[in-house]
């Protein structure tokens, strides 16, 4: 099988982009319009990073020993793979996907997969909204869900469901920031 240098370069670029997003490298302005112009005064809010090492699912984190790098890398690759699968499906359906503040976002998703205002799968946020610049707080909230996918690996979906569908009582939604996620709780 012969591969062209252009195809190899495209694959290399996709890998570099995926790794950069996985490592949290900001690849877009803090808040970008669909045309890519920065929105004046909009920045992703800085909040304290949740510590999951003492939470109810601490035992599901990578162990911290000699094999920790392999565990962490495998979980990051799993999140990238899952996210890229959802992006491929979205693009195949004619939807738009772009990076906003280092987060992959796919717009116009009409599926049970985009519950409420949207849902993060792996490293990708699926939303039913049209292509638009998302609020910095929402981007920070969904970026924390990406971090949760990377920390808890393939078990994250099950762990999330075990917490229940009420976002106001869900450990992972609380950790990601209820207000930033658009949730109003009593």
Walk me through what this model shows:
This protein has 186 residues and is an alpha+beta fold. It has one domain (5-176). It is built from five helices and four strands, in the order H-H-E-E-E-E-H-H-H. A four-stranded mixed sheet has the order 1-2-4-3, with helices on both faces. Strand 3 (119-121) and strand 4 form a beta hairpin. It is globular and about 45 Å long. Residues 1-10 and 12-45 have low confidence and may be disordered.
Unreliable segments of 5+ consecutive residues: 1-10, 12-45
> How much helicity do the residues have?
25-40%
Radius of gyration: 17 Å
Count of DSSP helices? 5
Mean pLDDT across all amino acids: 80
The H-and-E topology, N to C, reads as HHEEEEHHH
The strands making up the biggest β-sheet line up spatially as 1-2-4-3
- Sheet-strand content, in percent, reads 5-15%
For the biggest sheet, the summary is: 4 strands, mixed
- Could you tell me the number of beta strands? 4
Assign an overall shape. globular
Keywords: Signal
Protein name: DUF4157 domain-containing protein
Signal peptide: 1-37
Organism: Sanguibacter gelidistatuariae
């Amino acid at each position: 099988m012969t591969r062209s240098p252009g195809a190899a370069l495209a694959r290399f670029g996709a890998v570099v982009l995926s790794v950069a997003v996985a490592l949290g490298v900001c690849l877009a302005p803090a808040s970008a319009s669909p045309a890519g112009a920065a929105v004046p005064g909009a920045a992703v809010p800085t909040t304290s990073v949740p510590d999951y090492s003492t939470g109810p699912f601490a035992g599901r984190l990578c162990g911290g020993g000699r094999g920790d790098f392999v565990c962490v890398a495998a979980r990051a690759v799993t999140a990238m793979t899952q996210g890229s699968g959802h992006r491929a499906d979205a693009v195949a359906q004619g939807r738009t996907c772009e990076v906003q503040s280092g987060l992959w976002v796919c717009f116009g998703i009409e599926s049970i997969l985009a519950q409420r205002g949207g849902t993060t799968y792996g490293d990708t946020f699926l939303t039913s909204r049209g292509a638009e610049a998302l609020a910095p707080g929402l981007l920070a909230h969904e970026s924390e869900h990406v971090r949760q996918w990377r920390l808890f690996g393939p078990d994250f979906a099950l762990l999330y469901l075990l917490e229940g569908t009420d976002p106001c009582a869900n450990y992972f939604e609380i950790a990601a920031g209820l207000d930033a996620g658009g949730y109003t709780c009593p």
